[in-house]
Amino acid sequence: MRDKLQWMLVIVVSMALGAAAVVGIDSLRSEPAPQTAISAPTSSTSTSGSTVSQSTDTGVSDVADLYAKVRPSVVRITGQNTRSGASGLGSGIVIDDKGHILTNNHVVSGFDQIDVTLADGTSVSAEVVNTDPGNDIALVKVDLPASKLSPATLGDSSKVRPGELVIAVGNPFGIEGSITEGIISGVGRTLASGPGRPLRQLIQADAAINPGNSGGAMFNARGEVIGIPTALENPSGENVFVGIGYAVPINTAKRFLPDLLAKRTIEHPRMGIGLQNVTPALAKRLGISVEQGALVTQVDTNSAAGRAGMKGGTGVRNSTIGDVIVSIDGKEVKTSEDLVDYIDNKKVGDKVQVKIVRDNKEMTLDVTLDAWKVNTSA
């Protein structure tokens, strides 16, 4: 990383993905001097000659046709902090003819001046309508006639399967309207960002994305948006793409879009615990009577779990073995992800019943979920 020349959101891959460095790809963020890093470059578009299977409902027969169809819905977003002089660049997706544009929260965070440039070169100031930092999404709005806007078609990311062809369209390194092609490499990925809520259910793809792609669009072969590029992984820690990129699924954005439009504060439920998957080997080593579930390794005393009396501890470095969560609201918990995914679909203030195994005895705790806050660690 280049101090004071580039800004990147550094995130650490969750336990399931290993310990490689993951960096946000909002763009080149800079201090006052090197503002040329985000100035509008000469328009440059790259396309691939690869063939896409014929889609009978869209008439799209190759990548060039697909790009021509979707390009007008992807915009460039530049940000400026007029007090510090810091600046940044990213991308966005036009979602309606009223001027609403989806992007990443980290593309607009910290800026008091936001500008949007359409595919035809039209540039206009924009306002930030609302943000959801917990999902790294934001909604901005421009004041333009409907005739100038080309809303994208939002797809259904729950139907995305590994191996499907995708293209990513955005403004990497300020090179406007760039397209890259690849496939879906995986779904349901989780990225932890240290203190704070991890990004969940991410789509992994090998279509190249780089700084400036953040907030842009990942399209399927039908020209539907299925994700918003948000992060890339590189074991070297450098802010360049090596084959693994992540996108926020479009269904996540669609779920919270009504709250974003209504300018409601978006909160995400949290139990306040650290977790480890129970395996037969771990159960044998710790003397646990169950061979699957979510072992509680730590408990935030000021959290929902702490108030409910849940106990943590691995038993490796101390004499305490944490509670093992085996079900929630009657639904079996085989892994930590089972628990996290269930909680993520609840609301702050909801009450859940958690069945645990403590000292090899089953008991039930009533937990009232609280909200993720900045600098919380579980």
Q: How would you sum up this structure, described in words?
A:
It contains six helices and 23 strands. It has 378 residues and is mostly beta strands. Strands 1, 2, 9, 10, 11, 12, 13, 14 and 15 form a nine-stranded mixed β-sheet that branches. It has a six-stranded antiparallel beta barrel with strand order 3-4-5-8-7-6. Strands 17, 18, 19, 20, 21 and 22 form a six-stranded antiparallel β-sheet that branches. A hairpin with a 5-residue loop joins strand 4 and strand 5. The two termini are 28 Å apart.
Please render the helix and strand layout as text.
Layout: E1 10-13, E2 21-24, H1 63-70, E3 74-80, E4 87-94, E5 100-103, H2 105-108, E6 113-117, E7 123-132, E8 137-142, E9 153-154, E10 165-170, E11 178-192, E12 199-205, E13 217-220, E14 224-233, E15 244-249, H3 250-261, E16 269-270, E17 273-277, H4 280-286, E18 294-299, H5 304-308, E19 324-328, E20 331-332, H6 336-344, E21 351-358, E22 361-368, E23 370-371
Parallel strand pairs: 9-14
Antiparallel strand pairs: 1-2, 1-11, 2-14, 3-4, 3-6, 4-5, 5-8, 6-7, 7-8, 10-11, 10-13, 11-12, 12-15, 13-14, 14-15, 16-23, 17-18, 18-19, 19-20, 19-21, 21-22
